[in-house]
Amino acid sequence: xxxxxxxxxxxxxxxxxxxxxxxxxxxxxxxxxxxxxxxxxxxxxxxxxxxxxxxxxxxxxxxxxxxxxxxxxxxxxxxxxxxxxxxxxxxxxxxxxxxxxxxxxxxxxxxxxxxxxxxxxxxxxxxxxxxxxxxxxxxxxxxxxxxxxxxxxxxxxxxxxxxxxxxxxxxxxxxxxxxxxxxxxxxxxxxxxxxxxxxxxxxxxxxxxxxxxxxxxxxxxxxxxxxxxxxxxxxxxxxxxxxxxxxxxxxxxxxxxxxxxxxxxxxxxxxxxxxxxxxxxxxxxxxxxxxxxxxxxxxxxxxxxxxxxxxxxxxxxxxxxxxxxxxxxxxxxxxxxxxxxxxxxxxxxxxxxxxxxxxxxxxxxxxxxxxxxxxxxxxxxxxxxx
Amino acid sequence: xxxxxxxxxxxxxxxxxxxxxxxxxxxxxxxxxxxxxxxxxxxxxxxxxxxxxxxxxxxxxxxxxxxxxxxxxxxxxxxxxxxxxxxxxxxxxxxxxxxxxxxxxxxxxxxxxxxxxxxxxxxxxxxxxxxxxxxxxxxxxxxxxxxxxxxxxxxxxxxxxxxxxxxxxxxxxxxxxxxxxxxxxxxxxxxxxxxxxxxxxxxxxxxxxxxxxxxxxxxxxxxxxxxxxxxxxxxxxxxxxxxxxxxxxxxxxxxxxxxxxxxxxxxxxxxxxxxxxxxxxxxxxxxxxxxxxxxxxxxxxxxxxxxxxx
Lengths: 386, 310
Hints:
Structural class of chain B: alpha/beta
Low-confidence stretches of chain B: 1-38
CATH architecture of chain B: 3-Layer(aba) Sandwich
Strand order of the largest sheet of chain A: 1-2
Radius of gyration of chain A: 23 Å
CATH architecture of the domain at 122-308 in chain A: Orthogonal Bundle
Low-confidence stretches of chain A: 1-41
Shape of chain A: globular
Largest interface: A-B, 59 and 72 residues
Oligomer: heterodimer
CATH superfamily of chain B: P-loop containing nucleotide triphosphate hydrolases
């Protein structure tokens, strides 16, 4: 008799909601909804469509608004006109200064916010699916801070031999190395135990944090220290088109690949073995998705620093609204992540004008109490998370 | 349950004219998916009664340094219910785990549909056998109906040749026989232990594999549903499937199994029809508890009770 399966008993018994035990017996002859229609709660079927529509509308409203607002205000109409002009749909070019502000300062920042938000939201949804734990996040397994070590090293030691791309490349390489170290260390006997993986992630996070502290201590001058601190807080203030280009390939590849694994992630919710019984090559799924998560997270961290809670809160909210199915959750989290981060960045740079709040600080300030509330609410509702 | 292996989809066999376009889009989809992953797995050919669908040949399994199974040989044939019984720690679940390819064997070989189990890919195995684990867990709040529908995943890349093979039919039927249709829209986490167990069973039935492996499917169930589950097992066997089921209740095993394998300390102590295997000396010895075996006064069925006090 093995004890393997017995260890995963549900955490606590839950009281049945709604109709209680009245469904016992006599259901044998009842057909499912009659004529093959699906007896799924009606709200849940409509929710993905409504959410997608709402988010797309929000995106189309937010982009021109974000383009217009800032230290140098540009009327929203002018923003739309300039965009229309550039893509050849009429409109008109603006004066030299607003045109330059719009296209060299605002739009790279907006595009970057969208890309990074989408990457973080998607990475969060994937991570939670891989670990079967709605509280997992890329930073849990140490990718974020691992990537940060690479970026901080370049600033602290004045490494610039790759020019404008130095920080991105170092962050990406360090992030990838971190994932592989975590993965290799938590793997034994051809399996990856989730608990081991998360504990290893915690250890790696601690080590990465200490390394960053050491780099700050060793930094060449106070300017570098200031730069590191600024970057550590998470910000999109130094967005440029080359940075957009640096993020674009990683983000696009990651975002394009992940929806193909939605069905398999659904099955993984049953547990590793049942997923395998249903034909999922669990180990391969893990390796591929961990790579994708590394790609998405490292891309985001390399240009913006550590921006927390987007990958945690966004998938949570979508799951509550539209159910846990990954076929909507993965693309939905990317879309919602983009909208949320664009809105957050807009707030970060306009609330305390002419100064600017660090974006990471803002997301954490809003995100953590919200997350705390979410935590308690969900736990009360679900009776714990297995 | 009307799911004999013969009704499963068979690409390449003659198809009605109406299904032709469906088939071609299906194969096109298969081709597209084939570029991303491995190609669609082939479903098993229909089995005839008596075919060995899973067998363990002289297998040894170690968990850590402990030998949990030693030289165990057992086979499950199409058309019969094989019950694995024995005291706690005898190796029943380990044996089922080895047969299901969850646990690697340290000696001997496990064959599924005649081929060593490690030569099958996960998607191919999923079309050949369904496994019910001892306890059902779920990490996200999917509804009951969504959980049962997950059992159809192995067939996602198979063209639907026959109407009765459709996912909706299979899901509705599996939910009806396990009596969970009434709470199809409720979240799985909101169910009681016994209800969860039946939902998990419905998912396994919806998979419509010709080989069923159930690890203590009756443990959390009330009297009525224990009987119901084993009636379902027997119906599946009569329809041509092979069923391997781990049971603690010897009375259920005696009533519903075609063959019983009794395990003791990682070995097979007895293997055969219940009438032959369930005798007082053997059971008293295996369970280290005096046991009485006698015929039911009216029906003549085998009854097993522990000897108490007197």
